[in-house]
Design brief:
The chain has 744 residues and is an alpha+beta fold. The chain is 21% helix and 30% strand. It has three domains: 22-295, Beta-galactosidase, Chain A, domain 5; 323-631, Aldolase class I (TIM Barrel), CATH 3.20.20.70; 638-743, Golgi alpha-mannosidase II (Immunoglobulin-like). The strands form six sheets. Strands 5, 6, 7, 8, 10, 11, 13, 14, 18 and 19 form a ten-stranded antiparallel sheet that branches. It has an eight-stranded parallel barrel with strand order 20-21-22-25-26-27-28-29, surrounded by six helices. Helix 5 (336-348) packs parallel to helix 6. The longest helix is centred in the last third of the chain and has 23 residues, at 609-631.
Amino acid sequence: MKKTLLLSLSALLCLTANAEKVELSTPHNTLVLDLWKGGEPKFVYYGEKLSTSDLASLPEPTNANWSHLEIYPAYGATHTQSETAFAMRHADGNLSTQLLVENWTKTSISDKAPNGANRTGERLTITLKDPLYPNIVHLYYQAYNDVDMIECWTDVTNSEKATVTLTQFYSSCLPIRRGNVYAHHFHGSWASEAQLTAEPLNNGILEIKNKDGLRNATTDRQEVMFSLDGYGRENEGDVIGAALMYSGNYRITIDTDDTEYHYYFAGINPDNSEYHLKKGETLTTPHVAYTFTHEGLSGASRNYHRWARKYQLRHGDQARDILLNSWEGVYFDINQQGMDQMMADIASMGGELFVMDDGWFGDKYPRNTDNSSLGDWVVDKRKLPEGIEGLLRDAKKNGVKFGIWIEPEMSNTTSELYEQHPDWILKAPGREPVLGRGGTQVVLDLANPKVQDFVFSIVDNLLSKYPNIAYIKWDANAPVMNHGSQYLSKEDQSHLYIAYHEGLIKVCQRIRDKYPDVVIQDCASGGGRANYALLPYFDEFWVSDDTDALQRVFMQWGTSYFFPAIAMASHISATPNHQTFRTTAFKFRCDVAMSGRLGMEIQPKNMTDEEKMIGKQAIADYKRIRPVVQFGDLYRLHSPYEGDNLASLMYVSELKDKAVFYWYKLETFVNQHFPRIKMAGLDPQRRYVVHELNRIDNQPLPYEGKTFTGQYLMANGLEVPYSHDVDYHKKNDWASRVLYLEAE
């Protein structure tokens, strides 16, 4: 036995000696792997870009405490005691798999990104094969030439003589060296999305998952930032970002065992989703997007935002319109005169787009509440006697664009669609369907090609008949409530979750192929679909159904870690707020909404004259700063999660000639004290003129119109008054400031 062990170690040392260090680099990042034929591919390095000399001298990572640095470990042959990325049951019942390098190639790429943009970079393809079975696994690593992002994904091809079963199929594994590592991730619920959690990585497993079926960002989110040198700081410190790009159920496992590394695994959630891969069939896993920075959490965010605007977000280089959405203004009480009046009101305040929300459709079953009509996408002529044509005419008359709400993946049991196609819904065999919103809502089965055609036809019919519709709000207000597809075979019921999202992506691709220019919002009970698998087909997402400005400070803060302001729909709403019943100052609501894509979610005729005046000024001011907010670099300055009732952030233009600074007081106490907020991201040598936007004070701030160097503003900041200088009867307990900086 000792002789056999020595021979095995000798063979391993021989293989390792023949290993080749293979690197991929972005402008400021490098990934290095050890590859050799007949061995498992191993992690060496991920971090700051390496020079040629440092790459040549790069030592092997430590194997102390038996660290296992395989980048795609497979279960059963050599890995049984540690977490693995891949597991399968072969056609002969064998549960063991060994994935060894057969070859690898590095190629330059010049292709289309998912959002249609041209991209260039380099792709490493590693071909893995089991010496006992003919199956092939490809690992892909793709580096961008102009942004600091490396994407990783996998595909699996069954070359056996019969069907095999995949029981675990993560997209990627990344070892992260132990130290004082913190994971910054996000949890939430309906109306409380993207709540930040920061925790040290200790021994054991941190698992982040979603099993909703449709809305995978409502609760836990699939993006994580790792601060490598203690609790994360916003604008300094080493940070790795990892974003799984999937629209369905996912699982992220961060395993900390007795070795020198944490092990990050991310991919499709395998729970009740084992995949039967037929002979000759290939399954491709979702991508994971990695970045590294020395510039802290905000630095990692800036990397994701640049990548998103260029390559992930539809129309990421086009400014977003300022809109009024009808939902909180009238709910289901849609009528032609009311819509015309709302268009005129938003136009009078300087808005550019009006969106008619739920309640406009249904013939046999009119949509007056949430318990009927989904699936019956015909205009309710009792509410809109002149139909969509009349609304488009009124929009043109009022000088605004027109948009419309749909929920195409859903139906109600009270609908003509359900009466005609009860076989189109998700339903467990032999059981009555579980019903959702309104006591009647059901989910259509997008695994079914006929359903895919139907969902596509909803958008196609609207846009082909009414090409002047400029905007669609696409909603999805139910999870998968019962497991069962009436389309999939009984053997493949475990494919439901994966097949649904494959069908959804096919529909989105068809829509964008035919209608590349229309703006589409991604909404799912609020922010339930804020993910990078769907955003290439959408222009923005609804951050949350909760429009309360105070809670939005927290939710938009968390959302900004991975998603840019241009994608974050943020609306001014009424008070008392319809979700929290909190009363906040109208200026505070404007200032919070102006840090994302500005819009309104209100009935203008119920606004006071003063609110209309402030709203009109906010819209005019936002138009001045829109290029900076929507295309600039984000610097988070003071977190609302600090617990001291203060939040602050800013955006800086790419040329550093303009910036917008936001300051929010979250609570008022007598004799409270706040730190003076130092700015960030400015050119220290340039001089900036300061102007307050949305000003309501009787007297301007003492530094209004004055000039400061970037160095001064970043070293000292400006004193911000804790309250507003307004007439006594206008005083309240809210305070916020928006400062606009322009270089001389």
